[in-house]
């Protein structure tokens, strides 16, 4: 019989495989059924091809807290290529602020009307309802450590902000950050959930709580 040559899984292996698939289904079910999970850091996995590296939970919390304080009561916050800060802000139910996320990765469109597709190569290609100087603070994390990327992202930041800027990028970008945005390095050092080869820093143009 030809069937004799077909390898068969043992009953133990089959049971383990079924258990794995069941756990996977349960995890996916939790993501869709539990609202708080939708915003947790890592609910959308990093895509390294898009140069995505999520902040540690502690860093995202610190930056989100700073953004809320800087925006003030009823403030508007824009997160440009900084989805983990956006997610941490959304965990703060009941806080008096509004936030949107400008992001190239369309997976973040699950966040509905707060998601705005954004390509730094077209820095001012933004929806008409995104009015100039309408955000109390803009938090930005340009995806690449290049002056071209920073310069183009800076156009977007300057269009959106009423004045306050919180920039997160490599320490090697300090001179360019000052040149294009007038921001200065902070004492606070952001960390990522995975260690990066390049030293990372925060920059601001106002008196912040990050020093």
UniProtKB/TrEMBL annotation:
Q: Where in the cell is it found?
A: Cytoplasm
Q: Any idea which UniProt keywords this protein has?
A: Cytoplasm, Methyltransferase, Transferase
Q: Which GO terms describe its biological process?
A: methylation
Q: Which GO terms describe its molecular function?
A: nucleic acid binding; protein-lysine N-methyltransferase activity
Presence of the UniProt keyword Transmembrane helix in the record: no
HAMAP family in the cross-refs: Methyltr_EFM5
Q: Does the keyword Methyltransferase apply?
A: yes
Predominant subcellular localization, coarse grouping: cytoplasm
Catalytic reaction annotation: L-lysyl-[protein] + 3 S-adenosyl-L-methionine = N(6),N(6),N(6)-trimethyl-L-lysyl-[protein] + 3 S-adenosyl-L-homocysteine + 3 H(+)
Q: Which GO terms describe its cellular component?
A: cytoplasm
SUPFAM superfamilies registered for this protein in UniProt: S-adenosyl-L-methionine-dependent methyltransferases
The name this protein carries in UniProt is EFMT1 methyltransferase
